[in-house]
Design brief:
The structure holds two protein chains of two kinds. By secondary structure, chain A is mostly beta strands. Chain A has one helix and eleven strands, in the order H-E-E-E-E-E-E-E-E-E-E-E. Helix content of chain B is 8%, strand content 40%. In chain B, strands 1, 2, 4, 7, 9 and 10 form a six-stranded antiparallel sheet that branches. Chain B has a four-stranded antiparallel sheet with strand order 3-8-5-6, with no helix packed on it. The chains are: A mainly beta, B mainly beta.
Amino acid sequence: MSAWTDLGDALIAEDALPTAGVFFALRDRDKANATKPLPWPHGTAQGNTLQATWASLATSKIFIPADVPGGYHLFLPVLCNVQMGASQTEANYGEVRLELGATEGEAQYCDWDVDDVLVLSVEVETSLRGTAQTLTLAGQVPDNLGAGVGYKTTLYAGGPSDAYSALHSIRRAP
Amino acid sequence: MAWTDVPDTDIDSGSPLKTGLMTDLRDNDIANASKPVYLAIDTNKTATTSYGAADQTIYAYCPEDASQLVCRFALWTASSGTATAKVLIKKTTGPAGSTYQEATSTATAKGAVGGSADKTVTITGLDNVSGDDLRGQAVTIEIYLKHSAGGQRVDAEATSWEPARWENA
């Protein structure tokens, strides 16, 4: 991420034409200014019994601002916890990711029987500008191969708490 | 800072851009750089005369163009004396330091927006907090409470107040 550039009057000499550097500075500032905090009320954690395929844990609708620059991502903090079935002796781990429209975000690891707060992200494709999109929180448990009763692993995920709601934003990818 | 209208007629066809136009563009950019953020300030305790551990912790993202945080909330005490709240901000990961502002109140009830409990703190200098540039970073905001007499209940709450905001001042 590039640093925000302070654009002082001194960059524009009196009666002189603006230099290329000024335009670069303005463009960079414009991108910096496009960061959009998206206050997000936390919801109850949704659980789903999962196997080694991606499945939806929760969905919501979100409006994508019309001026989101290319390469921006939507960030959403989530709280995850994996609970293994009653008969299992081997701890499972889970993975969670965001899906925005048809775009899949990078999966993050979620521990067994531990409340993990993860900040997930997914790229906001420029084709989504100005549209309402479905934001999906998806999960899977890759090593949960036993499908029988007692081998089912449940992954819970949801908004962690109000304390994290201000992390939710559309911003330049780090 | 007031937002400056830049009409198309300021740019004559075939003419070079002028210093004044660039200044207008900059001013527009700065005026446009106020971003509301929901900081769920809601904490209370029987406070002593000095701050203890943080009474509430909130995580947020500081926009790249934010130079200050304006935070508004109600602050009151159930008894006489002065309630004080400290709003502290620092980088979440590897902070070199922190900066804060305090608000004081002698209100004995939350009251209404605009009443005596209505407080606003402005934390400036987010580009250099003990050497940390908080812009574009995940930040931790902590709320601390104390009371002039000690042993008295102090409340800080932003539930029905207007949101806090990041600003480019």
